[in-house]
Amino acid sequence: MQAYINDSQINPHHVSYDEHYYKKYAEDTEIHPLMIRIELKDFNEKMQPEYEALLRELVEDDLLTGENYALELFETLTTYPSYEDILNDTAISMKEKMGFLTTFFISQIFNAYLRQENTVENRHWIIREVLYFNKNEDHIIIKGNVQKTH
Question: CA separation (Å) from 92 to 38, 72, 83, 96?
């Protein structure tokens, strides 16, 4: 995994994610663009089983409740996006994809990739928002905004 802030490569362990602070920007702190590149093979190995489990859980919940609660959160989604749908931008719009990922899966991705060696001393940046997620050849590209933590 590689991380870039303002197009300069940084140590990815200096980036943290906290779902409680997601989309909550610190007012007096400058916003910087973030890009994360993850090898597709590694991403598939770690995240495809997690995503498939998420889909099973959402469908099971729908069957138990008799509702499609999760899908009702979105304007145009009529079925849950497949794993291939979230890797590409052909089946659903980026807005819908990011809404779905933010609600159900982005924290699992960041927990898998940012939590291992991310100690309090290492945290220099916090992800505030993810705006883009797509496959680009043999990498997953994630783009968003970060702010300094101290």
Answer: 22, 15, 12, 6
What is the DSSP-derived secondary structure letter of residue 121? Answer: T
- pLDDT per residue as tens, the chain (150 positions): 999 999 999 999 889 888 888 889 999 999 999 999 999 999 999 999 999 999 999 999 888 888 887 777 777 778 888 999 899 877 788 888 898 898 889 999 998 998 655 555 667 899 999 999 999 999 999 999 999 986
The first and second tokens of residue 124, run together, are: 């220099």
Which residue in this structure is represented by tokens 């702010």?
147
Which residues, other chains included, contact 126 with Cβ-Cβ below 8 Å and sequence gap of 6+? Answer: 15, 16, 17, 18, 21, 146, 147, 149
Query: 41, 148 in Cβ contact below 8 A?
Result: no
Residue identified by tokens 């779902």 is 19
Tokens of 101: 């990922």
The DSSP symbol for 11 reads -
Helices 106-114 + 94-104 axis angle, to 10? 70
Cβ neighbours around 130 below 10 Å, total: 21
